[in-house]
Amino acid sequence: MGIKIPPWFTSQFDEDKMRKFCHEEWCLEFFKQVIQTKGTSIFFTGTPGSGKSQKDRYFLQYFAPFETVIKWDTGKDDIQLCFTLGKPVQILIPLGCKFEMRGEVPAEYVITPVPIPEITWRLIKPGWINIISMRNYYLDEKNLKSDVRAMFKNFLLRLRLDEFKNWLPAVFDADEAHVILGNLRIDASADGKQTGQDVANILKECRSKGLRWLIISQGYYDIQGTARENTPCYVVSRGTVVDRRDNPKLNYLSGFARSCESKHGWIVLPNGDHYGKTSPIPFPYFEPMKTRIIYRGFVDEEKDMADDSEMLRGDPGVFASQMFEPEHSPAIPSRYAVYDGVNQ
Predict the structure, then answer these.
(1) pLDDT confidence of 193, banded at 50, 70, 90?
(2) 188 pLDDT band (50/70/90 cuts)?
C-alpha cells in the first residue's frame, strides 16, 4: 500500500499535478524518503545536454513552498527557471557590479549588493529564491575560487551556532557543482581543494540542521568523494559513468543511460531502491523565460585598480625604499629672520 500524502503538501499544488504525483510509485516513496525528511540531498549526474537542469527544476518545485531556496548562478541562463517557481527572488551580486534583466519577468525580484563574500549567508531572505551570482563577475577563476572559499569559511561553525535558523530549512541548489565541490580532476589549486573539503564537511553535518543540497555535475567523479558519499539520493541522466566498485547501483543504471533521451532519467532513493526499472521516467520540459540577463563589471578589475592606485596615494612611506635621496642645498632664510636681523 502507498503512503498517504498529507494536506500540508498537496494543498500547495494544483489538483492535476497532485493527482499524477500521488499515483506514481516512485513519487510516493520520494515524498517519504526525501521531501518529508529535511536535509536529504540529491545528486544529479549526466553529460551536457542530458536535461539535468530541467530535472533539477522539476524537483525544486516540490521544495520551494516549504524551504528557503539558495541557488548558485552558473552564468549560463539556468537561473531563469527559478523565476517560474511562484516565489519572490533575490539576486546577490558583488558590490560594485551590475545585474540587469531585459524582458518580461514573471516574479518579483530585488538585487542585493554583497560587500564581502563572508556575509552572503546573513543576507539570505527566508522563504525566497536566493540566487548567489558570482561566477560571471570574475576574470580569473583563481580569484573566484578564493572568494568562494571565503564565502564558505566558518559557515559550518555558524550553522552549528544556529545563526541561520531564520532561513532554515533550506535547499542549496548547486549547478556546475565542481566550482564549489571540485577535486583534482577539475581544479588542483589550493583554494579549489580546500573549498571542496570545507563544503564536503558542511554536507556531512548540515542534514541535522535541515539544509539539503541539490548537486548537479556532468561527472560522478567531478566532485570530492566525501560529498558524493553524503548524497543518498541520485537522479541519473544520459551519459552517467560510474565504476562498479564505487556505486554498483549507478554502474548498473549507467548501461541504460548510454543512449536515452534528454527528458529521460532514473531515480535511486536513499533506501537503495531505483525507479524506471521497465522504462526510464519521462520528466516534463519547462519553458525558460524570454528574458535577457546582462552581467556588468568585474571584481578582479576593481582589485587591480585598487592595487594601481597605491602609487597615487599621499603616503609615500610604502615606497620609501624606492625614493631618491634629495640633494642638500643652503636653506633660504624666512622673511621673519631677515626682518629680525635688520632690527638688530
Answers:
(1) low
(2) low
CATH 3.40.50.150 fits 37-295, yes or no: no
Residue type, position 208, single letter? S
Which of the four pLDDT bands, split at 50, 70 and 90, describes residue 316? Answer: very low
Q: Which sequence spans correspond to the domains of the chain?
A: 37-295, 307-343
pLDDT value for 284: 93
Peptide bond into 169 cis (omega under 30): yes
Q: Which residue has the higher pLDDT, 154 or 125?
A: 125
Banded model confidence at residue 132, pLDDT cuts 50, 70, 90:
very high
Give the pTM. 0.83
CB-based burial, 54-71: b 16+ in 10 Å, e otherwise: bbbbbbbbbbbeebbbbb
Percentage, residues of the chain above pLDDT 70: 83
**Cβ count within 10 A of residue 310:** 10
SS (HEC) of the chain: CCCCCCHHHHCCCCHHHHHHHHHCHHHHHHHHHHHCCCCCCEEEECCCCCCHHHHHHHHHHHHCCCCEEEEECCCCCHHHHHHHCCCCEEEEEECCCEEEEECCCCCCEEEEEECCHHHHHHHCCCCCEEEECCHHHCCCHHHHHHHHHHHHCCHHHHHHCCCCCCCCCEEEEECCCHHHHECCCCCCCHHHHHHHHHHHHHHHHHHHHCEEEEEEECCHHHECHHHHHCCCEEEECCCCCCCCCCCHHHHHHHHHCCCCCCCEEEEECCCCCEECCCCCEECCCCCCCCCEEEEECCHHHHHHHHHHHHHHCCCHHHHHHHCCCCCCCCCCCCHHHHHHHHHC
